[in-house]
Design brief:
- The protein has eight helices and four strands; from the N terminus they run ααββαααββααα.
- It is of the alpha+beta class.
- It folds into two domains: about 325 residues, Outer membrane efflux proteins (OEP); about 80 residues, Outer membrane efflux proteins (OEP) (Single Sheet), CATH 2.20.200.
């Protein structure tokens, strides 16, 4: 899980962003999160739609027509083309037309349904719960991705810092060698060698600066700002994290696992709705209507506006029951398919837990290795500095070669890079452990300003 800050982290100016602020801004702004949140809103609306099934249905009608009244005896199959005519068969066949009108209201309500409507509401609620867990999972994955991109940027910046120090030492070496060559105390080849080392250091710096630019592009995309506005503050990331920087959360609480649980619950809710669909449907109905016509039962017609206004009224109340007898095979087939879906989703949940446990074990192994490396790199830096001092002294006294001095400079530059990256690697491994367990908040807070 992650904890969102309520502070505005967009207008940071030159102060830059801490790790926790960067994660908060990404979660608040990234489009994929907003997409998931709108899916929750749609699912909530679907719950309200399912609950409308408890309400009675009321239909109203009003109609006006001008038509002939010829009627014939005999059965007619249902059709949407031929309009039915009420009344006796008069034996007439002429095109005399009269006015006709209709107005009425039909109310229908299902008093009980053996739990079908409640099951459909439960399906909609399970769908909303699934959408909510999808939002949480999206936010969590985005937060983890942003934190990793932030660490990548800090690592690139530390590489640039080490590269600048390496160039400064290379410049000192070039000036020293140049002075000795001008004094004809050293051959000119050594000046060429020192300048080659200087160029190599500058090339390494250019590559480091390129890595910084690329990391800013990635982080800026996640934060929703221009890459030129990206400014990352290392905070405590250049120090080793404490032993309790991670979390002991259960793997089942990981947002990925919780989302899969919601998938299983939704599938089970759909099965329960199917199990209640093979049952009689009852309806309590009531109607009030009136009709008007300009034709009489003796075959005569009324002229003028007769029939425009309804003049014959009726009302009725009734109770009907329908039962889809032959729907049972199809319902049983759908239940079998849904049961298979539930079993598949449960197995997928077991797979998710297995993968998360594997990620935890792998991350913990990486964490232990990173800690051991971080404990060794300070010795590497100290020894490299001592070696550079000795090589420089030997060279200036004429006892050593420029190759030894250049090698010592490269060794120190690499040692400084290894030392900075070693601590960041510990943080990255700590983040990986927390991400697999499902809660990176402790890591974010410890890495604060």
């Amino acid at each position: 899980m992650i904890t969102l800050c309520a502070t505005n982290v967009f207008a940071q100016g030159s102060t830059g962003l801490s790790l926790e602020e960067a994660v908060t801004q990404a979660v608040q702004r990234y489009p994929s999160v907003r997409v998931s949140q709108e899916q929750v809103s749609a699912a909530a609306a679907a719950i309200q739609l399912a609950r409308t099934a408890y309400l009675p249905r009321v239909d109203a009608i009003a109609g006006l027509n001008r038509a002939t009244r010829n009627n014939s005896f005999g059965l007619l199959l249902p059709s949407q083309v031929i309009a039915p005519i009420s009344g006796p068969v008069l034996g007439t066949n002429d095109l005399t037309s009269v006015w006709g009108s209709t107005v009425g209201v039909l109310a229908s309500w299902e008093p009980f349904d053996f739990g079908l409507r409640r099951a459909n509401v439960a399906v909609a609620e399970a769908t909303r719960a699934h959408a909510q867990t999808t939002v949480a999972r999206t936010q969590f994955e985005l937060a983890t991705l942003t934190a990793d991109a932030f660490l990548t940027l800090i690592a690139a910046q530390e590489t640039v810092r080490a590269g600048l120090a390496a160039i400064e030492r290379a410049d000192v070496l070039v000036r020293t060698v140049d002075a000795l060559v001008r004094a004809e105390l050293r051959p000119g080849a050594e000046l060429s060698r020192s300048r080659a080392e200087q160029a190599a250091a500058r090339t390494q710096l250019v590559r480091a600066e390129q890595a910084v630019a690329e990391a800013k592009v990635t982080l800026g995309q996640l934060l929703g700002i221009d890459q030129n506005q990206v400014s990352a503050l290392p905070g405590r990331l250049l120090d080793l994290p404490s032993e309790n920087a991670g979390t002991a959360a259960e793997v089942a609480n990981n947002p990925i696992a919780r989302e899969q649980v919601a998938v299983v619950d939704e599938a089970q809710a759909r099965l329960r709705a199917l199990e209640r669909s093979y049952a009689p449907r009852f309806a309590l109905q009531g109607t009030v209507y009136a009709r008007g016509t300009g034709a009489l039962s003796n075959g005569t017609t009324l002229g003028g506006a007769n029939g425009l206004g309804p003049n014959v009224q009726n009302w009725a109340i009734g109770f009907t029951a329908t039962f889809p007898i032959f729907d049972l095979p199809s319902i049983r087939a759908r239940e079998a398919a849904q049961s298979a879906t539930i079993r598949a989703e449960k197995n997928r949940y077991d797979l998710v837990l297995t993968e998360l446990n594997g990620r935890i074990n792998a991350a913990k192994a990486s964490l232990e290795g990173a800690k051991r490396v971080a404990q060794n790199t300070p010795v590497e830096v100290q020894s490299a500095r001592a070696a550079l001092q000795q090589a420089s002294a030997r060279y200036e006294s004429g006892l050593g070669s420029v190759v030894e001095a250049a090698d010592a400079q490269r060794l120190l530059a690499q040692a400084e890079i290894d030392d900075a990256l070693a601590r960041l690697t510990v943080w990255r491994a700590q983040l990986a452990v927390a991400a697999a367990q499902g809660d990176i908040t402790p890591v974010l807070r410890q890495a604060g300003r």
